[in-house]
Design a protein that fits this description.
Radius of gyration of chain A: 23 Å
Largest sheet of chain B: none
Number of domains of chain B: 2
Shape of chain B: globular
Protein name (chain B): Alpha-E domain-containing protein
Number of helices of chain B: 15
Number of helices of chain A: 16
Oligomer: heterodimer
Largest sheet of chain A: 5 strands, mixed
CATH class of the domain at 231-325 in chain A: Alpha Beta
Shape of chain A: globular
CATH architecture of the domain at 231-325 in chain A: 3-Layer(aba) Sandwich
Number of strands of chain B: 0
Pfam families (chain B): Alpha-E (PF04168)
Strand content of chain B: under 5%
Radius of gyration of chain B: 20 Å
Structural class of chain A: alpha+beta
Number of strands of chain A: 25
CATH topology of the domain at 231-325 in chain A: Rossmann fold
Domain DUF403 (chain B): 1-314
Helix content of chain B: over 70%
Distance between the termini of chain B: 15 Å
């Protein structure tokens, strides 16, 4: 038996912490508490300790071959090189106990309900604004607010049907929401495929650990979509997934989900509007479509209503939507709820609409259009994370403790030019999870994106996408920035 | 089924068959150049074969003079040549990727492996590759894909569309190969019936993996009439015009039966008509009418059937 060297946690926790707290800051390690292995990881620890030396390399190569063969790649066109890239997959799973998960689940569902209530409200009477809890300007002058759908209430009042909530952990019971994704969160195919690959490679692990399954997700998604059929549909609804096409980086996911749900994967050109309905072009002539799970952004949905140069959408789609001939998931305009400026008000939404205290905390956020916040942030840039309000993918952000003085000064100028485009947050001590790296096993920072389904019921499969920052000390988990993925386990009772 | 899906399946079939044709063409060319006594050396033959695939213009523009290496590069690897093996495999795989949901994992696997292996070959040094292994690579992988289709795909409309693509493409390819033999390959009319003539026929039979089958079916001599009969009218020959067309008709019937009266079936009607016209001929009639004239007519009819498939099914009825 050969043990992998477990790299010194302190060494791995690195500069980010050192800068912040004079080297005293500790990250929450999800597997180890000092020398002790935490309960959920006990069996995994045996597995690692009895793993032969060359076994890991062999299995890692096998996993990569499987991914490539199945075709799970994310396509990056226009950068040269191989357009089909693999997201690095780490074989070391991340584990939650049942009780931990239950708490998370309640928090995620609560947040999902509040976000949908907010959307229903701001496209209706706007009570939360009248009550002075959220500034009108942030909602009505938001780029993601769609005037075209004001007053249109989608079936069951649900605007966002698939909500991906990005969570980070800083302690045993401390979870924070980093951001909400109410439009078209991606990554669920990795949750499903990571599990498939793990079960195929390590069946014995699944026999020893009792792990909640996640493969019911596609059936639940289809049920959710069918449950929000439009008023004019009085048969079993026909659902489709609308993709921008096979050059899109998430195309694999689109076709994967369509396949598992047993629905057609359509492009804009496959659909057309005739009278009060939307149809798809089939070999047997036109076929009516009732529910569209769209994976294209609002501006591209309908060239007659939004961007006239869009070739991805369907002319006339919005008219059919407004008159109840088709459901669009997520509903046009849902993006206003996941904006980084609106984010700070989500706990307020929970209190306002649900009369409950939020179970999941927001990360403290300074909004730079407020004078006090602005002063504080500018004085403490080296300690903070600054993000663009509309940015995504880990681009256009400053991680203060990891930046050089020049980078900070450069960013300072960008902020000064347009303060209202930025928010700032403290550098969180993201939890770490053991990860296979070149030298053996070492802690790497992780986050979590569970996928919450909202239709006639609110559902959350026990699991999600764990992203891991593979670079030592890095806090950025995005796949475009050197992040990888892990299988996420919820142990059953 | 989405019209776009059907269209991709149809073209996936066509491109796989076309890849195979390109590889066989390479094989024919290579064997013919081994024959010493042709008039203008091997360049002539290669030009003829490029004409058969409709790509001699593209070749001349890009490469100029004909050499064995350039031909291999062009017919097998070149992405600027839309009919090269690499182009066709890539397009077939791209079609497959677009309609991933309509394929079984076995078919996708076979298609994807073919593509990944192609990428590996492309990285190898060209001098390490011989023509025979390139041909074998192609026919091997296309056969694997076809085997996966036949053993795992549902016998639904998608399956019919794939095979329709195969059938029409194969009919077209065999007709073109025959045409090039008679119209272009043989340098002068007095060569008909000569040793060169019969050698070229054998090469074509070999390229169609049919030289043994031919000897089983006809025994002994290779004569123009018998080979033409074998490749045009023999219903046992797997690549003959009549077999290819018969299979296309069979799949068009399958589609029409499935979709019922409400969906137009002009392609099926046309294909039936052409098949009947083939069945009503014998090889002497075809030679009397002129082989080249007959083949031109046939290639035109295959084009017309493809157009009708497009109109009946691939536009989506709007």
């Amino acid at each position: 038996m050969v043990r992998f060297p477990i790299i010194d946690e302190h060494q791995a926790s690195l500069r980010a912490g050192a800068v912040l707290n004079g080297g005293k800051m500790k990250y929450y390690n999800e597997m180890f508490e000092g020398e002790r292995v935490r309960d959920p990881y006990a069996r995994l620890n045996d597995w690692i300790e009895t793993m032969p030396d060359d076994f890991r390399q062999m299995k890692q190569a096998e996993a990569e071959a499987l991914f490539r063969r199945i075709g799970i790649t994310f396509a990056v066109y226009g950068e040269g090189g191989d357009p089909d890239r693999l997201i690095p997959f780490d074989m070391m799973p991340r584990v939650f106990e049942q009780a931990e998960w239950r708490r998370l689940e309640r928090g995620v569902k609560q947040r999902a309900r509040a976000l949908n209530a907010f959307l229903r409200d701001v496209y209706g009477r706007g009570e939360i604004i009248r009550a002075g809890r959220i500034p009108a300007r942030l909602v009505y002058r938001n780029d993601a607010y769609e005037k075209a759908v004001v007053g249109v209430v989608p079936p069951r009042g649900v605007y966002s049907h698939i909500i991906g909530i990005d969570l980070v952990r800083t302690g045993k019971d401390e979870f924070f929401v980093l951001e909400d994704n109410c439009r078209t969160p991606s990554g669920v195919s990795y949750m499903l495929e990571n599990r498939e690959i793990m079960m195929r490679m390590f069946p014995q692990l699944f026999r020893k650990n009792r792990i909640e399954p996640v493969d019911q997700y596609p059936a639940l998604l289809r049920r959710t979509l069918e449950s929000v059929a439009p008023p004019k549909c009085n048969d079993r609804p026909t659902c489709v997934i609308l993709t921008p096409g096979h050059y899109n980086s998430a195309y694999y996911e689109h076709s994967f989900l369509a396949n598992l749900m047993g629905v057609e994967l359509v492009e804009g050109a496959d659909l057309f509007v005739d009278g009060e309905f939307v149809y798809m072009r089939t070999t047997q002539g036109p076929k009516r479509v009732d529910v569209i799970y769209r994976r294209i952004d609002d501006p591209f949905l309908d060239p007659l209503c939004f961007r006239p140069d869009s070739m991805l959408g369907v002319p006339g789609l919005l008219d059919v939507y407004r008159s109840g001939g088709v459901s669009i998931c997520s509903a046009p305009g849902a993006g206003v709820a996941d904006d980084k400026a609106i984010y700070t008000f989500v706990p307020e939404m929970v209190r306002f609409y649900l009369g409950e205290e939020p179970l999941l905390q927001n990360v403290q956020t300074w909004t730079l259009w407020k004078e006090d916040d602005y002063k504080h942030v500018m004085a403490n840039l080296p300690d903070l994370v600054v993000k663009e309000v509309h940015g995504s993918g880990g681009y256009g952000m400053l991680v203060g403790p990891r930046a050089t003085t020049e980078e900070i000064e450069l960013f300072r100028k960008k902020i000064e030019a347009n303060p209202s485009n930025y928010i700032a947050q403290p550098t969180l001590s993201l939890s770490t999870c053991p990860t296979f790296v070149e030298e053996g096993i070492a802690p790497r920072h992780v986050d979590l994106r569970p996928f919450c389904l909202c239709g006639d019921r609110i559902e959350l499969v026990p699991g999600g996408l764990t992203r891991v920052a593979l670079r030592e000390g890095s806090l950025v988990v995005n796949s475009s920035q050197g992040g990888g993925v892990k299988d996420t386990w919820v142990l059953s009772e | 089924m989405l019209s776009r899906t059907a269209s991709n399946l149809f073209w996936m079939g066509r491109h796989l068959e076309r890849a195979e044709t390109a590889a066989r063409l390479l094989d024919v060319g290579q064997r013919i150049t081994l024959l010493p006594n042709t008039e203008a050396g091997y360049q002539n033959e290669w030009n003829s074969l490029l004409q058969a695939s409709g790509t001699s213009g593209v070749f001349a523009e890009k490469y100029g003079e004909v050499t064995q290496e350039k031909i291999e590069e062009f017919v097998f690897f070149d992405r600027d040549n839309p009919s090269s093996v690499a182009s066709c495999i890539e397009k077939a795989r791209e079609s497959g990727r677009i309609v991933r949901t309509a394929l079984t994992s076995e078919v996708w696997d076979a298609l994807n492996v073919a593509y990944q292996e192609l990428r590996k070959i492309e990285r190898k040094s060209r001098s390490k590759l011989d023509t025979a292994s390139l041909t074998e690579f192609t026919t091997g992988h296309t056969a694997t894909v076809r085997g996966a289709i036949n053993s795992t795909q549902l016998r639904n409309d998608g399956w019919h569309f794939m095979h329709l693509g195969y059938g029409l493409e194969r009919a077209d390819a065999t007709a073109r190969l025959l045409d090039v033999k008679y119209f272009v390959l043989l340098p002068r009319i007095e060569f008909v019936g000569s040793g060169l003539d019969s050698y070229q026929w054998q090469v074509i039979l070999r390229a169609l993996s049919a030289h043994r089958a031919y000897h089983w079916a006809y025994g002994g001599d290779v004569s123009a009439g018998r080979v033409a009969d074998f490749l045009i009218l023999n219903g046992e020959s797997p690549r003959s015009l009549i077999t290819s067309l018969y299979e296309a008709v069979w799949h068009l019937e399958g589609i029409a039966r499935r979709y019922g009266e409400a969906v137009p079936a002009a392609a099926r009607d046309k294909a039936r008509e052409v098949l009947a016209a083939l069945q009503g001929r014998d090889i002497d009639m075809i030679f009397d009418e002129g082989l080249h004239e007959f083949l031109s007519w046939f290639i035109g009819e295959i084009g017309a059937i493809s157009m009708l498939v497009h109109e009946d099914y691939l536009l989506g009825g709007s």
